[in-house]
Write a structure and sequence with these properties.
Blueprint (H helix, E strand, L loop, with lengths): L1 E8 L5 E8 L2 H10 L3 E7 L5 H33 L5 H19 L4 H11 L3 H15 L4 H6 L7 H13 L2 H56 L7 H15 L1 H20 L1 H13 L3 H22 L4 H8 L6 H15 L5 H6 L5 H13 L2 H56 L1
Antiparallel strand pairs: 1-2, 1-3
Helix pairs in contact: 2-5, 3-4, 3-8, 4-5, 7-8, 8-9, 8-12, 8-17, 9-17, 10-11, 11-12, 12-13, 12-17, 13-14, 16-17
Length: 430
């Protein structure tokens, strides 16, 4: 038997430490886990461990010097990260980190050692520094959720809340695994919508560039040549010529109008009232509004279910889900629902009365509350709306693409006709 010193957290999330005898460090961690402790560090004690401890101390000293530099860099960059939304690259890093950490913890590896393993294989320098900082804070006795919350540019309120609940319940590995699955599901929905939107946007941009090139480079030369012959140009050609002249002469004015419109929109959208008005109108748009609504509802239901399954209280679940909806009207509705729950109401009643959430969601929540399986019902609702998002995306693409193709074809056809018409007239005169 070998004696091990250990550090970690108890069932209530408080710091805990002690000694335990076991045949191996892994067996010691398994024993402590069965007792309800989450182990962050184990160290072999006794005469035979002195040599090992000296090596560990030397290594710790070298790491502490590096850590000091990393902490300094992080502190200087953290102020910028607080005001930023989590980028796509950061989400990818966090997703990989979560899956790896869940796997290592399930294998019985202590949290600090699991983080060390992740640090050794993390390629991106920035996230490597973040992981080192998290490990250092946990090694010093800071709860995992608090260590993660110091990096909001990577770990949002949802992530921190789930980790905090999992840490308190001694089920951090299970919560992380659930969180990784949730993040993958959200990424899948987001990628489907992005892929569906990419093709029409690319087509529109290319079409605009082609038309602009024709108006600026081709049309002036042809119309100048035709005017030199002293013949009256057809009406379509004259319209095209005037459009081309305006674009060439006043391009800077159009650019200024575009920039000014963008600034005004950003100013309006940055205010609470302006954003509420714009987001409300977005939900009423044909096709696009339906897609936005279903995507937000899917995100709301799945986030709520994931948090609830992780042991997060209902009120806190609603508070966190407000941040993932991406629409001010829906956020305000959830805030109103949360306020009514604090006054003693159930969840289903305010959801039904909101007029924003569909009746199906209200009925499913009511059934879940009565049966005590609210998390399961919300998960089913989320999956149902995820399928609806896919259907709405296909419908949106199948309608927008032909409309866009016809529009660009008519526009380019008009330009070609306006150019060829006087040329044909000229050829007939000979």
């Amino acid at each position: 038997m070998v004696i091990y010193e250990w550090k970690g957290f108890d069932k209530n999330g408080g710091k805990a430490s002690g000694v335990i005898d076991s045949d191996s460090a892994r067996e010691a961690r398994a024993k402590l886990k069965r007792q309800g402790y989450m182990v962050t560090e184990t160290t072999e004690t006794g005469p035979g461990a002195r040599k090992t401890n000296r090596k560990a101390q030397k290594k710790a000293k070298s790491e502490s010097k590096l850590q000091a530099k990393l902490l300094k860099t992080l502190e200087s960059a953290r102020g910028k990260g607080d005001a930023q939304r989590i980028t796509k690259r950061n989400l990818e890093d966090v997703g990989t980190f979560t899956r790896q950490l869940a796997t290592l913890l399930k294998a019985g590896i202590p949290l600090t050692e699991a983080l060390r393993a992740i640090i050794e294989q993390t390629q991106r320098k920035r996230f490597n520094m973040v992981t080192r900082d998290i490990r250092e804070r946990i090694s010093q006795g800071e709860p995992t959720a608090d260590a993660l919350s110091n990096h909001p540019e990577y770990f949002d309120d949802l992530y921190v809340s789930m980790v905090r609940s999992g840490e308190a319940a001694g089920r951090l590995d299970e919560v992380l695994e659930r969180l990784a699955g949730f993040m993958q599901g959200q990424a899948r929905v987001r990628n489907k919508v992005a892929a569906a939107m990419a093709y029409p946007i690319i087509m529109l941009c290319i079409g605009v560039l082609v038309v602009a090139a024709l108006l600026v480079l081709v049309v002036p030369k042809i119309t100048t040549m035709l005017e030199a012959r002293g013949e009256l140009l057809p009406l379509p050609t004259r319209i095209l010529q005037n459009t081309s002249d305006y674009l060439v002469e006043w391009w800077w004015a159009f650019l200024l109008i575009f920039i000014f419109s963008g600034l005004v929109f950003n100013l309006i959208y940055s205010s609470q009232k302006g954003r509420l008005g714009i987001d409300s109108k977005l939900l009423k748009l044909p096709l696009f509004g339906d897609l936005i609504t279903k995507q937000a509802l899917s995100r709301f239901a799945q986030t709520f279910a994931t948090l609830l399954r992780s042991g997060v209280p209902v009120v806190r679940c609603l508070e966190v889900t407000e941040t993932v909806l991406g629409n001010r009207l829906l956020e305000k509705t959830v805030q109103d629902v949360r306020a009514k729950i604090l006054e003693g109401a159930d969840i289903a009643g305010p959801i039904k009365a909101s007029g924003v959430f569909p009746p199906l969601m209200g009925y499913m929540i009511a059934v879940g509350e009565q049966s005590g399986e609210l998390d399961t019902m919300m998960l089913q609702v989320g999956e149902a709306y995820e399928e609806e998002v896919e259907i709405s995306t296909q419908k949106f693409t199948s309608l927008v693409e032909p409309i866009l193709i016809v529009f660009l074809a008519v526009l380019v056809g008009f330009i070609v006709l306006s150019i060829l018409w006087p040329v044909l007239q000229l050829s007939q005169s000979f």
